[in-house]
Amino acid sequence: MNNQASNLDTLMKTVKQKGKTKFIAITSGKGGVGKSTISANLSYTLAKMGYKVGIFDADIGLANLDLIFGVKIGKNILHALKGEAKFDEVIYPIEEGLYLIPGDSGDEILKYANQDILDEFIEDSQMLNDLDYMIIDTGAGIGEVTQAFLNASNDLIVVTVPDPAAITDAYATIKINARFKKEIFLIINMVGSEKEASNVFSKIKNVAHKNIPDLELHLLGSLYSSASVKKSTKYRELLCRVEPLNNFSSEMRCIAKKISSKVEQNMLNYPKENFMSFFKRILGYL
């Protein structure tokens, strides 16, 4: 066990030394499925595991991560792209190892995110260059801007709930993104039982297997609906912080461990890049 722990520690140091940020986009087929709540709690959990994590609020028109984290923001990344703020001024520390980058209108962001501006940012800011993870909280649906963020990310997590319309929209999102991703991950939120979660995943996986045979679809986890979850949503609280022993928090730790394990196994497949090179890749998809 000691040898295994030592080897894992060496492996993680290697990942960080190579400066490979893993960009994970979290999306959904429709709104109202808890995507932003999951994004916020997942990034917080990864940070508590000792990783350096950034979370970018790219949920165009519905950006609310600042409320969930309980931080007051004055400017967002659009101000920096317009030259109205330095890039460091739109990075908000949540706590040790966790940073929020608030977004704005996606069309506006990409309008100002040109090559020269991004090159200047790389020179001006090094704060995000050694991130282990960047969580991208995208908008729901399959709009052009949202799709650019999904295409540019290394990994994609689709969130759905046990609702026929949500399941249909989740599958549509999976099908579209299967053109760019060999594997896609699924989180089923607001379930009433493990059996319900299993049935939802089986339904989506069976349809995907028939129509997208080359896609690997993985279930990352299922999150139960509870009074605590509803309360945290109502009052915009970070549930994993206020109730770390809650079932939701425990399952979120399991999901985070699955993600980190997957990354450790495939670290050589990740390109060496930072937040600004990620933006450059987004521009290439538009």
From TrEMBL:
Cellular component, GO, one term? cytoplasmic side of plasma membrane
Q: Which of this chain's residues are annotated to bind ATP?
A: K30, G31, G32, V33, G34, K35, S36, T37
InterPro entries linked: FlhG (IPR033875), MinD_FleN (IPR025501), P-loop_NTPase (IPR027417), ParA/MinD_ATPase (IPR050625), YlxH/NBP35 (IPR033756)
Q: Name one GO biological process term.
A: negative regulation of cell division
Could you tell me the superkingdom of the organism this chain comes from?
Bacteria
Named from the GO MF annotations, one term is:
ATP hydrolysis activity
Q: What is this protein called?
A: MinD/ParA family protein
Organism source for this protein? Answer: Helicobacter cappadocius
